[in-house]
Amino acid sequence: MVALHHSLFTTLFLSFQFLYPTSAQDFPPGFHPGADGPASEATKGFWINHTGLNVRNLTASKAFYGSVLGMRHIFTIDYTDHFSLTYMGFSQGGRNGTGFQTGEELRRIKNNAGGMIKLLHFSASESAAAVPTERTTTLSNLGLVVPDLQEAENWFERHGVKIVKKRGVDTLAGDSDVAVSFNIGPESTSNQTEVEELVKGLQTTDFGNVVFIEDPDGNLLEVIEQNGF
C-alpha cells in the first residue's frame, strides 16, 4: 500500500511538474514565454468564434465532425438549391460528455461560443472537384484536445478515420502531410537538414504523444492529450 501511494504521488508530482514547470530549465530549448501587456480596450470582447471549411460532401463531413468528434449540429441554412452553410460545435457547458446542450440551445449562444466549425457546401463542386486539393492557404491544422490519446486513436481506427501520424511516432518525413502542414514539405525551400533539426526540436515537446488525423476533405487535425504539452 505504501509503495502504491508513493507511486501515485510520484506520478502526480511529475505530471504537475510537466504542466507547470518551476524554472526556465524545465522548458524545452527555444521556448519563449509570452510577455505581452494588456490588450487594447478597443479589442475587449474579441475572440475566435469558428473556423470555416469548404467541404465536398456535407453528409460525410457532418458524420466526421458529429459522430467521430462529438460535435453537435447547430443549424443549416440552404441559401440556394446548391449552396448551404452548416454550423457545428461542442456543448459549451462542459467537456467529455458533460453539459449536453441541444442544437437550439447552442444556436442561442452561438455568438458567445468558441471552437465551432462552419461547413460551406456547394453541391455542384462534388463532381467537378472545385474544392482545392493542394495547399493554397496558410491553414496548417485544427487542434483537438482529448482526455486519453490512446483511446481516441483506437476510436478513430474503429471509425475508419485516416490517421496520418500515430501515437508513439516521433519522426517526421519531409514529404509527409504533417511536414506540408508545417510548411516544410517538398514544395518549400527547406532542406532535409532543416527537417531533421525540426524533428529534434519537436521531440523536446513530446511530439511522440501527438496524433494527426484527416477529415473527409484532407484537413489535418492535431490531437493532443489534456495533460500534454
TrEMBL record:
InterPro entries: Glyas_Bleomycin-R_OHBP_Dase, Glyas_Fos-R_dOase_dom, Glyoxalase_1_CS, VOC_core. PANTHER family: LACTOYLGLUTATHIONE LYASE GLYOXALASE I, LYASE (GLO1), PUTATIVE (AFU_ORTHOLOGUE AFUA_2G13550)-RELATED. Coiled coil: none annotated. It comes from the Eukaryota. The keyword Amino-acid biosynthesis does not apply. Gene3D superfamilies: 2,3-Dihydroxybiphenyl 1,2-Dioxygenase, domain 1 (3.10.180.10). Residues 1-24 form the signal peptide. This is VOC domain-containing protein. One of its GO terms (molecular function) is metal ion binding. Keywords: Metal-binding, Signal. It holds the Pfam family Glyoxalase. Residues 47-226 form the VOC domain. SUPFAM superfamilies: Glyoxalase/Bleomycin resistance protein/Dihydroxybiphenyl dioxygenase.
